[in-house]
Amino acid sequence: MVRFLLNDTPVSLSTAEANQTILQFLRETRELTGTKEGCAAGDCGACTVVLAELSSCQQRLHYAPINSCIALLSSLHLKQLICVEHLSEHQQLHPVQQALVEHHGSQCGFCTPGFVMSMFALYHNTDAVKRHDVEYALSGNLCRCTGYRPIIDAALSVCNNVVADNFKAQQATTISALLALRSSADAPQKQLTKNNSTQTANKDNPAINGAGLLMPTSREALQHCMKNYPDAPLVAGSTDVSLTITQQFRHYPTLISLTQIAELKTIVHTQTLVKIGAACTLDDLHQLCCKYYPTLTELIERFASLPVRKQATLGGNLVNASPIGDLPPLMLALKARFIIDNGAEQRTVAARNFYTGYRETALPKGFWLSCIELPLLQLDQHLAAYKVSKRFEDDISAVCAVFIVTADKQHNITALSTGFGGMAATPAVALDFEQHMAGHNLLDTQSLKHAKQWLADTFSPINDVRASALYRQQLVANLWHRFVLQYQNQTLEKTPDKIHNKQIATRVRYHA
Amino acid sequence: MRKLSKGMTAFTSSNTETQSPLNKAVPHESAVRQVAGSARYTDDIPVPSNTAYAAVGVSNESAGQIKRIDLDAVRQAPGVIDVITVADIPGKTDIAPVFEGDPILADQNILFHGQPVFAVLADTVTHARQAASKGQIHIAATTPQLHIDEALAQQALVRPSHTMQTGNAEAVISTCAHQLEGTLSIGGQEHMYLEGQVALAIPEEEDRMLIYASSQHPSEVQKLVAEVLNVGLHKVCVDTRRMGGGFGGKETQTAQWACLAAVLASRNKRAVKFRLARSHDMQLTGKRHPFKNSFNIGFDPNGQLQASVIEVTGNCGCSPDLSDAIVDRAMFHADNAYYAGQSTVTGHRVRTNTVSNTAFRGFGGPQGMLAAEAIMDGIARKLQLDPLQVRKQNLYSEATGTQTHYGMTVTGNRLPDIIAQLEKNAQYWKRREQLRAFNAQSPIIKKGLALTPVKFGISFTAKFLNQAGALVHIYTDGSIQVNHGGTEMGQGLHTKIAQIAAHEFGVEITQIEVTATRTDKVPNTSPTAASSGTDLNGKAVSNACREIKQRLADFYTQSLQLPGAKVRFANTQVCVGQHVIGFCELVQQAYLARVSLSATGFYKTPKIYYDRDKANGRPFFYFAYGAAVSEVSIDILTGEYSVNQVDIVHDVGTSLNPAIDTGQIEGAFIQGMGWLTTEDLRWDDKGRLISMNMATYKIPAIGDTPPIFNTQLYQTPNNEDSIYHSKAVGEPPFMLAISVWCALKDAISSISDYRLDPQLDPPATPEKVLWAVMAMQTQTQAVADVREPAL
């Protein structure tokens, strides 16, 4: 059973049908047709809805926009689902709706409900909204009619003049309703564990038995599910598995959802590293990067769109093993360590040993990715992550390049670590290059020329819809060039020598 | 005060004397319903309980002969109700709009990859799509023709080539001080309406059929559904309340799905909905035509164009569809705004094994215009003049010439004034200096600037389409229903129509309801296309309103015994001298006195004629003008770029609705920018479209909107008697985006110190920009101080 609030109404849904998306639920079973299907692939945002979730302190609600077309019912569990029909009350439009009307922000109107919902989430989550915040919040919503200018104006106007809306007024009621859902969902499970051993509890727990969408809440229960349904895919944010359902028309009798296992969502910091649960969302990762790896912020902010990042998980992106995924190159460059688990034992696999072939990993059958250990940067380490794509926002990389350079005071490279996406059948490391560059000076012109040639010759990428092989080769070389220029800019900033203190602009724009 | 994005949003109205909504920034008639999620699109209409769902099985070859179709697995798939091939179509099987060549389902010959071969009906959408993927289509494949050049060399044409000519250009070119030749490959464009193709067919009594379709051309859907069902047109009714975007992609491309739904509905006696999955929508429906243009010109030492030979070749895909007229429009606009001297413009329409290309905002005009703008850039670089100077001096004028290559005289050219305004507003010359200074000290990031004009001909070039009908009812409570032949796809047509009707009757706009476009209300309509929606239907509606007004006026003056007195409709009142009566009261009295309160209206565009055999005439009622300045930054290491600022001045005549017109201009600009930059259609070697979803085909996102985006309406009444002297605005501003392409070229040209004109075939993806940059570096052997030499 999935228990959630459909606006203010508690709903319990059977999960016997594992493949149903939230969009299908809304349009086909509830006749809530305000939410639109534009692409059924999480690329256009017409289907955006908002999930309100209790904050960790249980005092507040956090509003997350998600793409309902690629979200399975498990995403709803213990949350409040809000869609466009719920915003206006008694013919009174919500302020974000009113603002769109006043700024002439809709033309054909088909993308509009999605924009309304993304704006609604922004309205509730941010104070002092700037243009960048609007672009950040609405980057997953495509509009083909307006050119966006009136939508940006509407969002800036309404989100900087926030008045308490109906949802604020109802907050206390909603929180208690969500808490009530939570205790009713916990009750049968607690009952089971109290009376029986864990094993019998698992056996009798309806959430993890019988075909359909299984929602284990512990590693033991997950192990139980995987043993009983060895062929059932694991699914977390479902942003990728859903595509096989909506685009390839696959039908899964059973799916095992990782969304309810708390320990897969924990984040732990130590002096030297940060441990991130594999089911943490990319949005969680974004918060973390802002703190520990500020130069990664742009890469994360340009990863798909906000609604996708609210759903998709770090583990999902890593295990998916796409050669063009943006996070595996980062893991390779950071020399991250992956903790894998089968319920009985945990093992550690170095990120650099994880990718074994095209969409193949070293994850053994029966294991799942549990958490990721990222080493924190040292003061002399310079980290840069670059992504080049046709469209700046919400696009897949032609090339993703990550460099971590350790340099001494004379600007000699003492250590170099790399990670690349889009350059090979797997996320890749330029191992020879890493070794070869040690000792090279970052201010030396010949060295740069040499390095570019070396890098361009390192890979044999392919031509595809995103880029030609030649472009990719040229890019890795030129992105190293960009890195060196940025390093020099940084260094020059610190030198008192005014004559050489000439900063070179290296970007046309970036998210920061 | 809060700071909004920088742009013009204040609207003023010239209409202040009455409460008329005309010329005011009235919100879109559906805006409130759209934001509330209650605006109903075709897929949202509650369906009858017996509704079933359709899908198609498609060819996975681009060319060949069907040998055998094995559909057993399809029939046995869960939920399947019916499976049909072309043999099961009761009537005509060709659903082409003008010239034959578009089979409803493949009939032996495979024309393109993704061509529908059979259709399935099942109990759910998912079942239908799952079943459709199970068909075994055995095809004896042949080598597909996928290239525009090869197709032209082999004279593989869907329609004959055509030439427009004045004087003897070839002879003059050789006598000119300077000659220039060039070619340009231009990419196509996916419409990417957010609402995909969809139709719902509901069988009614006997052989009658009701169709709800997301269509720009309900009358054509009606005709084709009648033909495939083999019934009269009077048995079919098509209803279109609104589309979730059209852009030309729902002019001819909706018919196939509506026809298949109708055939399945008729066979199975149940309602059938057919909605294409996005990937099918992208593979199975036509797009903007890719073009290959070439030019050979002669000009004088001042940069004055003296003779031009221009050849435009449209890749029409596998059938004619609307391509004859589209390539014609490309030819009509190959001069853009410039007097091309003695000129010969030839247009070819080549056939390839790709989906048949179709109408898309601008209808060939944008592709044609790129030739003219490439020529201007070419002249400027060769003579080392600023491109704006070259553009200005070549505009149509008494000094240069006023006659186009198709014999139409350009009168009242507004471009000199528009450009003068824009130069000033956008501070073109000051920024040009700043840009040069910036580029001189910035080795990696280069900025570019360009001002380009647009002159776009308004009218369907097929003369018969320039007609429209309307049907207006006043009910006894004084409320008014307006129907007309145009369709609402977001462009605000129904809003403008409501403004027109409210203005005519002098009532509040809330008293007007513009209802769904229906073929049983206004028959034999033209498509809502060619920017003509308001021009044609607005006039038809005002004619209908005036018919009823005349009856009401006659009734009122007679009852006052003041026959022939002047009657005024304003502020929900009707006045004759000192006599005043409420509008609703007059309506009631008129009804009781048996005055008809319903009328039809009709309109046909005057003055236009065109003799295609002689390629001479006045195909356009008037021209719409505009100009834009765009500034870009490019990164010469990656080819990435951003558009920093855009300034627009655009001619809308007397704007009926400044907010809606501004929305059309801004939206068209961004859509045009997408076409020229990131929207990159890709096919593999077999002819399969590989950019077939939104993950691989990138339309502009919110961050692509320039941070400074100023749009100003150039409001001067249309010299022609258009509806309240407004001007059409749907397509013309699309081509303002050519300024972005020229600005990118300008930035690249800076590497050569503006001595060379880069080859930059659109779409100018970052990859293409990088190659153009590197070509320029090679040509100029420029060794910039980037603290190292280039790779």
Topology, element by element:
The complex is a heterodimer of chains A (512) and B (791).
Chain A: E1 2-6, E2 9-13, H1 22-29, E3 48-54, E4 61-67, E5 80-82, H2 95-102, H3 112-125, H4 131-138, H5 149-159, H6 166-169, H7 171-195, H8 198-204, E6 212-214, H9 219-228, E7 234-235, H10 241-246, E8 254-257, E9 267-269, E10 273-277, H11 282-292, H12 297-301, H13 306-311, H14 314-320, H15 327-334, E11 337-341, E12 346-350, E13 355-357, E14 360-361, E15 368-375, E16 381-388, E17 399-407, E18 413-421, H16 431-436, H17 445-458, H18 469-494
Chain B: H1 31-36, E1 52-58, E2 64-70, H2 72-76, E3 80-84, E4 109-110, E5 116-122, H3 125-132, E6 136-141, H4 148-153, E7 157-166, H5 169-175, E8 178-186, E9 198-203, E10 209-213, H6 218-229, E11 236-240, H7 255-268, E12 272-275, H8 278-284, E13 291-299, E14 305-315, H9 323-332, E15 342-350, H10 365-383, H11 387-394, H12 415-425, H13 428-441, E16 445-458, E17 467-474, E18 480-484, H14 493-505, E19 512-514, E20 517-518, H15 533-559, E21 567-570, E22 573-576, E23 579-582, H16 583-592, E24 598-604, E25 609-611, E26 616-618, E27 622-635, E28 641-651, H17 658-676, E29 708-714, H18 738-749, H19 766-780
Parallel strand pairs in B: 1-12, 10-11, 14-15, 18-19, 28-29
Antiparallel strand pairs in B: 1-5, 2-4, 2-6, 3-5, 7-15, 8-13, 9-10, 9-12, 11-20, 13-14, 16-27, 17-18, 17-24, 21-22, 22-23, 25-26, 27-28
Helix pairs in contact in B: 6-7, 9-10, 10-11, 14-15
Briefly note the structural class of the backbone of chain B.
Answer: alpha+beta
Overall body shape of chain B: globular
Shape summary of chain A? globular
CATH architecture of the largest domain in chain A: Roll
Number of strands of chain B: 29
Number of helices of chain A: 18
Rounded radius of gyration of chain B (Å): 27 Å
- By CATH reckoning, the class of the largest domain in chain B would read Alpha Beta
